[in-house]
Amino acid sequence: MLSPSPFAWVSQYLFGFFFAYGVYLPFWALWFEDQGVSAADVGMLMGLGFATRCIANLLITPRIHKAESLLPALRWATLACTIFIAAHLAAGPSFMMLALVTVLFNLSFGPVVPLSDAMANYYANRGMLDYGRTRLWGSVAFIAGSSVVGYLASQFGANMIVYTAIAGFVFSMLLVMRHPATMPISQHEGDAVRPKLTLLLKDWSVIRFLVLIALIQGSHAAYYSFSSIYWKEAGHPESLIGYLWSLGVVSEVLLFAFSKKWFAGWSLRTLFVISSVGVMVRWGLTASTTAVGALVVIQLLHGVTFAIAHIAAIQYIQKSDANKMVALQALYNAIPLGAFIALMMAVSGWGYELWGAKVFWGMAAMGFFALFIKVEPKNRGVRDINENSQPEPQN
How many separate domains does the chain show? Predict the structure, then answer.
């Protein structure tokens, strides 16, 4: 289908992109380790990647505030991701070369998530798709990517991690080159006005939102960097580790699939409290045991610690002024999901070398502090099209 519906275009692109991300996020630390990189340096490299995403989302993403600029920007970013992910094969085992390609890749990778989410939000606000049902295909792809690469790495070696990621980005490149049936276009003159990030960062509602999300999503830093290494040291094979990561995303898929039905009428406060409690329980268990049964419970809680918080964050952004949505999406990905996770990855690398799995208790504490931050969005003064309009058929 050369001109798919908005739902088909966004969900299919997310499938390709998150397949590659399902390879990158769980297994890149293992690939670095296979190159001879120490645990502390793994933390530094992974943290450097997230820090670079932060810079990209502060300096590059907000410039793409017009709806009609979203598609060209996604195409260039996906092409650059494909090139620089492949460059890792020529970089190892030099730490400086690995750091260089990490920066280049994440400069390209960073804008993709907020821009693709901005595409989804654009169509969702016009009743053309449901965000949860669209985003779940990214989660399904993450499961596929982490499962496939876990098997391939255990059978054929760690370089299969890079080869599989390359395949995912090539597939994404083919998908992003198509035109959706309805192209994104700015509807009002004010939608094309570029908002100033400095003004948004003076808004206490925005600041509270960013701090709250930083605590909840930042608590995943040690998980992203060291859970695979931690579980492998406990004697679990790469294939099981891949299945565990996939199981976590299965719960995420269920939350996205039924979010509109399950959470209709729920306040943002309620969603964030549930997610914060999940953070305390999940990372407390992670610090305490590596038994397979417990790991299953831990991974099923991913839907609570990640998906519910993400759904609440997207609801906050969707209720903002149209010209601020990409800027807020950029800040969301730059600060809580970029800078703060980068900092916590570096800290967790140092902490993991000193204390091992006890570092996860620090992650659990972040959920406790998140309980005390209240966030409510400012109304746009326009009707929520998702609630008052019927979406077009999603097939």
Answer: 1
